[in-house]
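Researcher: We plan to redesign the surface later, but first we want a full-length starting point. Tokens attached.
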């Protein structure tokens, strides 16, 4: 029994011993063979080189990644700068556009301003010409007025001189006639009395009733200057004649003959003391007496 037990125990140990080397062999086969000692010492260096190689292999990738990140960063910075610069650029562009538009307006305004200045210059020139024309016209009118006034004054002076001379001659003639005709005065006065009407309203006739005036006509300028109600005189201060039984007197170079009788209610010496004047009506010449303005006597004009 003891022997059987020993054999069993021995067999068991043998079995276990054969199983253990087999498991160790399998582990050895599964695990790589351990290098020798010098190989074990060289293994860290090799691992370092391999790590370095791996680092070198990974380094280009890191640098490219960095470069790409830097590029992206720069791109973002550029975009950000562009975004920041865009308002300033737009403002600068707007300012440049405004300056350009202002230059264009200035260029456009230059012709307009030049045209305005030219138009203003032309207007000033035309105004000056008009002023000069008006001034010249005024001067011409003033000169004409002065000339007319001078001519009128000269004419008036000449007429006054002629009148004075005629008056002097008439007075001389009248005085000499009076002196020479002292014996004839009664005859003339008799003629005047013979021409006195008995009923003048029924005896006198105006020129229309006589068929119209057919004698000499005094020129208008001469008549306006020496005849009419503003030019009175007295008959016997002038030369007096009796022609064909009619009294005739001289005034301003003309002879006047009384065709009508004179009213019976006039004074006997009216031709010597009353102021009379010669005027022209629609149909002929008449003699008016200041004392009897409603009466008129038809007269005829003679040059000689």
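Model: Full-length starting sequence:
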């Amino acid at each position: 029994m003891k022997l059987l037990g020993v054999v069993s125990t021995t067999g068991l140990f043998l079995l276990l011993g054969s199983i253990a080397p087999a498991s160790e062999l399998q582990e050895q086969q599964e695990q790589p063979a351990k290098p020798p000692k010098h190989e074990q010492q060289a293994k860290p260096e090799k691992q370092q080189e391999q790590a370095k190689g791996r680092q070198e292999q990974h380094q280009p990738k890191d640098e490219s990644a960095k470069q790409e990140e830097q590029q992206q960063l720069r791109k973002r910075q550029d975009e950000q700068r562009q975004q920041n610069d865009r308002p300033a650029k737009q403002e600068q562009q707007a300012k440049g556009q405004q300056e350009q538009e202002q230059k264009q307006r200035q260029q456009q305004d230059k012709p307009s301003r030049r045209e305005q200045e030219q138009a203003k210059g032309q207007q000033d020139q035309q105004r000056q010409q008009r002023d000069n024309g008006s001034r010249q016209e005024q001067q011409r009118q003033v000169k004409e007025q002065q000339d007319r006034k001078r001519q009128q004054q000269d004419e008036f002076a000449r007429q006054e001189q002629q009148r004075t001379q005629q008056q002097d001659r008439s007075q001389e003639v009248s005085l000499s006639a009076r002196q020479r005709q002292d014996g004839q005065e009664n005859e003339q006065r008799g003629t005047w009395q013979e021409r006195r009407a008995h009923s003048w309203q029924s005896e006198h006739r105006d020129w229309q009733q006589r068929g119209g005036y057919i004698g000499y006509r005094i020129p208008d300028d001469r008549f306006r200057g020496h005849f009419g109600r503003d030019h009175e005189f007295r008959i016997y201060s002038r030369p007096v004649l009796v022609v064909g039984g009619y009294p005739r007197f001289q005034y301003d170079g003309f002879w006047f003959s009384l065709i009508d009788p004179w009213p019976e209610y006039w004074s006997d010496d009216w031709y010597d003391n009353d102021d009379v004047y010669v005027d022209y009506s629609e149909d002929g010449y008449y003699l008016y007496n200041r004392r009897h303005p409603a009466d008129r006597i038809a007269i005829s004009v003679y040059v000689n």
